[in-house]
UniProtKB/TrEMBL annotation:
<dbReference type="GO" id="GO:0004563">
    <property type="term" value="F:beta-N-acetylhexosaminidase activity"/>
</dbReference>
<dbReference type="Pfam" id="PF01915">
    <property type="entry name" value="Glyco_hydro_3_C"/>
</dbReference>
<dbReference type="InterPro" id="IPR002772">
    <property type="entry name" value="Glyco_hydro_3_C"/>
</dbReference>
<dbReference type="InterPro" id="IPR036881">
    <property type="entry name" value="Glyco_hydro_3_C_sf"/>
</dbReference>
<dbReference type="Pfam" id="PF00933">
    <property type="entry name" value="Glyco_hydro_3"/>
</dbReference>
<comment type="similarity">
    <text>Belongs to the glycosyl hydrolase 3 family.</text>
</comment>
<feature type="domain" description="Glycoside hydrolase family 3 C-terminal">
    <location>
        <begin position="430"/>
        <end position="606"/>
    </location>
</feature>
<keyword id="KW-0378">Hydrolase</keyword>
<dbReference type="InterPro" id="IPR017853">
    <property type="entry name" value="GH"/>
</dbReference>
<protein>
    <recommendedName>
        <fullName>beta-N-acetylhexosaminidase</fullName>
        <ecNumber>3.2.1.52</ecNumber>
    </recommendedName>
</protein>
<keyword id="KW-0732">Signal</keyword>
<feature type="signal peptide">
    <location>
        <begin position="1"/>
        <end position="33"/>
    </location>
</feature>
<dbReference type="InterPro" id="IPR019800">
    <property type="entry name" value="Glyco_hydro_3_AS"/>
</dbReference>
<keyword id="KW-0326">Glycosidase</keyword>
<dbReference type="InterPro" id="IPR019546">
    <property type="entry name" value="TAT_signal_bac_arc"/>
</dbReference>
<dbReference type="GO" id="GO:0009254">
    <property type="term" value="P:peptidoglycan turnover"/>
</dbReference>
<dbReference type="InterPro" id="IPR036962">
    <property type="entry name" value="Glyco_hydro_3_N_sf"/>
</dbReference>
Length: 606
C-alpha cells in the first residue's frame, strides 16, 4: 500500500538524509598514509631525463579521432587536422607527448572490442617509440547506465541509481570488477567512474540517475564498493565530480552552476562519498566545474580553485593521488577565464591531469609558457607528473602496456559476465504503484500488449530504440506485443493514433522519461487511461515521473533505458522476477515539493 505523504521542507531533506552519514564518515581523515612509494626514486630519474616539452605533455589527456593509431579513415584525419593539428594518434603523441588519451564513441574510437584493443596497442606502440618511452594512460567514461562509451558485445551493467535501488554493495563491487576486467582487456586502464555525487535535487539534469541516490551514507558505501571492484581488476577508478555536483539544476557542460550549500551542509551531504573513496584507496578523483562560495569566496570554478583542490582535497582530506579535471571543453570551466588561462590555473590549483582541452595547442603552449615565465614552477609540474607516473607504474604499464586478442576473447562479453549483469539487474527494478495487483501480467492468457512511449537517444548499451527492445523482451517471454513509439513530446495527432491503436489491447505499457508539468507525455498517459485499457508506465530515466502521471494502474522505475534494465523490467512485468528494488531518492508531490509521496526505501513487491 502507498504510504502516507510525509511533510518535509527541502532544507529538512538536505539535513535529514545526511545525519547518519555525518557520524560515520565525517571524522577527520588521518594524514594520508599512502604505501611507501618504493619506485619514486626510479620515477624521479625518468622525470629528470624528460625535456620541458615532454613534461608538459604528460599532464594532458586528449581526444583523438579514428579507429586506429596510424591509419584512420580520411574523415577522421580531417577532424584531427582541424582540431589537433595532427593526422592521427601517433602524430599526436610525437608532437605533444601527451600522457593520456580518452576514448569517445563520437571520436570513432570504440567500434568493437578487437578494434578497441588494436587502437590501444597502436597508441602504446607509438608512445614507446618516443625518446621518453613512457606508456600512455588510456581512459574513458564507462559509468554504465545512461553513460557508456563501450557498447555491445561488452557486458553492460545497471547504472548507478539502479544499483542504488538494488542496495547491495557486493553487487556494486561485482559489477565494477566485471566492468573493469573488460576495460582492461581493451587496453583502457582509467575509468571515470564511479559517480560520487549525492543527488539531493530532483531537478538535477546533469547528474540524475548517474548518482547512486540521495542518502550520503548509502552513496558512500556504493562508491567505496565500486572503487574496490574496479581497482581489483587493475583499473584506475575515478570518483567524480569533486566537491560534489549533486545539488545543481544547471548543466556544467553549458553553464557554470552554483552550489549554495553552507560549509556544514557540504561536509554532511557532499563529502561522505569522497571520503569513502579515499579510504578505499581511490586512484584518481575528477573535479567539477561548479562554484561553491562556502569553500571559495572568490567564486572560482572548483577545477581552478586552490582553496578547494589544495585546501580541501589535498590538505583537509590528505589526498595525494591523481586529480583529473572534468573536460576543459565544457562551458562551466570556460565561463570566467580564457582557454589559455584555464590549464595553468588548474595546475596552480592542485590538479594533475588536464582533460580534453578544446584546443590542445593553445592549452599545451599556455602551460609551457607559464613554466618558462616562472608563473608555474617546474617543481610544481614535476609533482603532478610523479603522481601520474606512480599510477602508470601501479597499473603495470611500464612492465607491459599491451593487451591481446586472447584477452579480449576470454574476457569481453563472456556468458559468465552477461549472466551476472542479468542477475544484478533483476534486483534493481522498483514497483511504485500496482493498483488491483495488475502486475504481474498472467502469461497463461497471453495478454496482447501495446508498448508506447519515449525512444531517447540510445546509450551504447542499447541494441535498438527502447520501445523496440522492450517489445522484443516481452515477446520472448511469451506475450503478444507490438510497438508504437510516441516520443518525449507526442503531438496531438500522435496521441490520437495511440488512443486508436490501444483499442482491443489488454494492456498498454508506456515508457516515460523526465515528465514535466507541461509534458505531452502526461496527456498521452491520461488519454490512454481514459480508454479503460490498463496502463503500465515505466520511467526509464529519473524516477520522479510517477508524481506527474495521471491514471496508470501500475508504475515501474528502471533508472535507465539500456537493454539490461529494460529486459529486467520486462521480467518483472511477466512475473519472472520480483520487483525488489527500493527508491534510492525520495519522490515529492509535483504540486507540493514539501510533501514526500514516496520516501527513500519505498518499493512494492509481489
Amino acid at each position: 500500500m502507498q504510504q502516507r505523504p510525509l511533510r518535509t521542507s527541502r532544507r529538512t531533506l538536505l539535513t535529514a538524509t545526511a545525519t547518519a552519514a555525518a557520524a560515520a564518515a565525517l571524522g577527520a581523515i588521518p594524514a594520508h598514509a599512502q604505501p611507501a612509494h618504493s619506485k619514486d626514486r626510479e620515477l624521479r630519474r625518468i622525470i629528470g631525463r624528460m625535456s620541458l616539452e615532454e613534461k608538459v605533455g604528460q599532464v594532458f589527456v586528449s581526444r583523438v579521432y579514428g579507429e586506429t593509431a596510424t591509419d584512420p579513415a580520411q574523415a577522421d584525419i580531417d577532424l584531427n587536422l582541424a582540431q589537433l593539428g595532427v593526422r592521427d594518434a601517433a602524430e599526436l603523441i610525437a608532437k605533444y607527448h601527451v600522457g593520456g588519451i580518452i576514448y569517445f564513441g563520437w571520436a570513432h574510437n570504440v567500434r568493437e572490442p578487437h578494434q578497441i584493443a588494436g587502437l590501444s596497442n597502436g597508441i602504446q606502440k607509438a608512445a614507446l617509440q618516443q625518446d621518453s618511452r613512457i606508456p600512455l594512460l588510456i581512459s574513458t567514461d564507462q559509468e554504465h547506465g545512461i553513460v557508456c562509451r563501450v557498447g555491445k558485445p561488452a557486458t553492460l551493467m545497471p547504472g548507478a541509481m539502479a544499483l542504488g535501488a538494488n542496495g547491495s554493495r557486493s553487487d556494486a563491487r561485482r559489477a565494477a570488477r566485471i566492468a573493469g576486467r573488460e576495460l582492461a582487456a581493451l587496453g583502457i586502464r582509467q575509468n571515470y567512474a564511479p559517480v560520487a555525487d549525492v543527488n539531493v535535487n530532483p531537478g538535477n539534469i546533469v547528474i540524475g540517475v548517474r548518482s547512486f541516490g540521495a542518502d550520503p551514507e548509502a552513496v558512500a558505501g556504493m562508491v567505496a564498493a565500486q572503487v574496490v571492484g574496479y581497482q581489483s581488476a587493475d583499473i584506475a577508478a575515478t570518483s567524480k565530480h569533486f566537491p560534489g555536483h549533486g545539488d545543481t539544476e544547471d548543466d556544467s557542460h553549458y553553464s557554470l552552476p552554483y552550489i549554495h550549500h553552507t560549509r556544514e551542509e557540504f561536509e554532511r551531504l557532499d563529502l561522505p562519498p569522497f571520503k569513502a573513496a579515499i579510504r578505499a584507496g581511490i586512484d584518481s578523483i575528477m573535479t567539477a566545474h561548479i562554484v561553491v562560495p562556502a569553500l571559495d569566496p572568490a567564486e572560482d570554478p572548483a577545477t581552478l580553485s586552490r582553496p578547494i583542490m589544495t585546501g580541501v582535497l589535498r590538505e583537509q582530506l590528505g589526498y595525494d593521488g591523481v586529480v583529473v579535471t572534468d573536460s576543459l571543453g565544457m562551458e562551466g570551466v570556460r565561463t570566467k577565464y580564457g582557454d589559455d588561462r584555464v590549464p595553468v590555473l588548474a595546475l596552480k590549483a592542485g590538479v594533475d591531469q588536464l582533460l580534453n582541452p578544446p584546443s590542445l595547442d593553445v592549452a599545451w603552449n599556455a602551460v609551457l609558457n607559464a613554466v618558462r615565465s616562472g608563473e608555474l614552477t617546474e617543481e610544481r609540474l614535476d609533482e603532478s607528473i610523479l603522481r601520474v607516473l606512480r599510477l602508470k607504474s601501479k597499473l603495470g604499464l611500464f612492465r607491459d602496456p599491451y593487451t591481446t586478442d586472447r584477452d579480449v576473447d576470454r574476457t569481453v562479453g563472456i556468458p559468465e559476465h552477461l549472466r551476472a549483469a542479468e542477475q544484478i539487474a533483476d534486483e534493481t527494478t522498483t514497483l511504485l504503484v500496482n493498483t488491483g495487483k495488475l502486475l504481474p501480467l498472467s502469461k497463461s492468457s497471453t495478454p496482447d500488449v501495446l508498448v508506447l512511449g519515449v525512444d531517447p537517444a540510445s546509450p551504447s548499451g542499447t541494441t535498438g530504440p527502447p520501445t523496440t527492445v522492450f517489445t522484443k523482451a516481452l515477446t520472448e517471454l511469451g506475450f503478444t506485443a507490438s510497438t508504437l513509439p510516441t516520443g518525449t513530446a507526442p503531438t496531438a495527432a500522435k496521441i490520437d493514433e495511440a488512443v486508436a491503436a490501444v483499442a482491443g489491447k489488454d494492456v498498454a505499457v508506456v515508457l516515460t522519461s523526465n515528465v514535466s508539468a507541461t509534458s505531452a507525455q502526461r496527456t498521452l498517459v491520461g488519454r490512454l487511461a481514459a480508454t479503460g485499457v490498463p496502463v503500465v508506465t515505466v520511467s526509464v530515466n529519473r524516477p520522479y515521473d510517477v508524481a506527474r502521471l495521471p491514471g496508470p494502474k501500475a508504475v515501474l522505475a528502471t533508472y535507465s533505458w539500456t537493454d539490461t534494465e529494460l529486459r529486467a523490467a520486462a521480467r518483472v512485468i511477466a512475473g519472472k522476477a520480483d520487483p525488489v528494488g527500493r527508491l534510492p531518492v525520495p519522490v515529492q508531490r509535483a504540486d507540493d515539493p514539501a510533501t514526500t509521496l514516496y520516501p527513500i526505501g519505498y518499493g512494492l513487491s509481489y
